[in-house]
Amino acid sequence: MPEEPREQKAGLAVEDTRRPRPAACSAVAEQDAAGRAASRSTVLRPQKSNISDANFPVDAEGRTYHLGTKRGEVANRILSVGSEKRALMLAEYLEPVAPGRGLFMLESSRGFLTITGRYTGAPVSIIVTHMGMANADFVVRENRHAAALHAASSCADADADDYSRGAVVEGEMAIVRLGTCGALQPPAHLGSFVVADPGAILIRRNPDAFTPEGEEGGLVPYTFSRPIPSDPALSLALEQEAVRLLGPEGVCRGLNATADSFYSSQGRRTGWFEDRNETLLADLLCCYPEAVTLEMETAMLLDLARCSRGSIRAAAGVIALADRASNHFLAAERTEQLERATGQACLAALARTPLDDDWGPHNGSGPPVWAS
Ligand code: R1P
Predict the structure, then answer these.
(1) Domain map of the chain by residue range?
(2) Is 343's C-beta closer than 6 angstroms to any atom of ligand 1?
(3) What is one Pfam family matched by this protein (predicted)?
(4) Which pTM value belongs to this model?
(5) CATH class of 179-358
(6) Helices first, then strands: H and E counts in the chain
């Protein structure tokens, strides 16, 4: 195969990233074209540069501090996944950003990988969010970022337009999380794909409860938030697309619980630490009998969407990898099959979701990568 020309952009180091595609991907011509787009793409790595603005750090190009992307590199439709392996696997289903080109791929110095391409024609970005609520916060906020806040003399003077000009993504956004989880009870079971509908609650560990004063005062070691809603239409689209690919028996919906850690706040017992979580799962099900899954990011995504001044729609679906009642774990091969199928369901749900995503004039930053 002839060598593809490499693109060198100012301030970006470019690295070859060809990866072999699995045979399953070449079965369908459309997937084959999409797979070729992934295999001939290169990963851009922004070089270190000076950062301005301690309130919302960006570099001179407007690249955000942790994700490293700037205006026009990220699509309005985002699929957030926990691992690079999952992201690269699903990138095989993306078409090029524009005819004759590869996918846009950028990895920040903090290891956030953003891949932008198209799915059934709609621009979509897959973003490696890694694990936990803080990382979900980076992904949502830095893509919704508003550099033009500088235009206002202070935060208090800023109006909605100040916030939207200069955003990494302009216009309405839809974000879907594809993750893995622990199943708590039916209808979720090992290998189920569970859509977080009606939403998620948040489980937080309370450090004050572990002090002598906290113990004396009877502080509870873990607290549960109220349910945070997911976007009903996006959740329904996700469920329908998943049923189309997996059949109705493989898909269900229910309340998700997002925990602020993998171990103590999900009721896992480890002898070296005093966690006082022996009754945590029973307490959770007593408080929320309808809770079916446990993971670590969805509540943050839904909370930020709820607080986004109406600019973000969010939903999540998780593959039940661990059965917390039986203590079983899903086989690796089955996990990958489910990641591929449910990843395509997420991409299809995003692609069919209507958004107010007209980028209009480009404000001097050039057109988005899918328009050039
Ligand atoms: C823990 O192993 C991680 O897996 C789950 C949890 O939410 C946490 O991020 O999701 P992902 O598979 O999306 O990472």
Answers:
(1) 1-171, 179-358
(2) no
(3) PNP_UDP_1
(4) 0.89
(5) alpha beta
(6) 9, 16
